[in-house]
Amino acid sequence: MTTRRFLQLDVFSTGAGTGNPLAVVLDAEGLDDAAMQAIARWTRLPETTFVLPAVDAASSYRLRMFSPQKEVPFAGHPSIGTAHAVIEAGLASPREGLLVQDGIAGRLPLRVEGEGQERRIAIRTPRASVAEVVDASDPRLAAAIAGWPLGTLPPARMQGGRSWWVVEVADESALRALTPDWDAVAALAEDTGSMGVFAYARSSGQPWDVAVRAFVGNGRRFEDAASGAANAVLAAWLDERDAMPRGRREYTASQGREVGHDARLHLAVDDAGEVWSGGQILTVIRGTIDW
To answer: Which of 22, 65, 112, 226 has a CA 20 to 30 Å removed from the CA of 264?
Structure first.
């Protein structure tokens, strides 16, 4: 066995325990696919990432990420959490405010602002596209959103690393009161090759601009506490429809309160139309594992 540095983080966090947990193995050289998957099953967290040396000067480091079930091509909170861990461990430093992550989804830049507990990291997410726009009565979708008071924009299936149905709810109070039909969400996910339904509503008089809820029906059925990738495809959809809460300025999303969290995610679309998803990260556990 080899001793490897290990961190557990709280991502998109307003305080310990409020964000999305992530495990990071910093010294992953020598681990094969089976070992990485075994460690991810052992941590039992939504994702576990593994940091490997950069292959050339164009990237800061390589990473692989695994859920307890399989390897994941891209996810937002593991990406920005790993960047935080790499900086904390001194494995890489930003160049002109940027790190470059090398993974299955390609080389993606991360913007780093601030220091220590005030540090905020955002990743330029894989470019999302509109797969289809449908009426709420679409037979594939209708059961999953039956009884939901809907907002102005039509439902759409967005493709961006992972596929999500984005559905606007009339207001924040209605969104927070939703009780998903998990069988219907799972059927929708299977029928359309999507993760499930990403519901959102505009907010007023709050420290955030939109409230969101992510109902995952792909595989294990659960409500995600905080999803950078899902929020990024929503930002791309809102930009597509000229409906960003603050134009192309940064806006804040609230996620996870219904499942005992209180995550805050920061989204922005730059002049090139690229979506940046990010937030703050807290280190909760520092240690080692023998594997």
So the answer is: 65
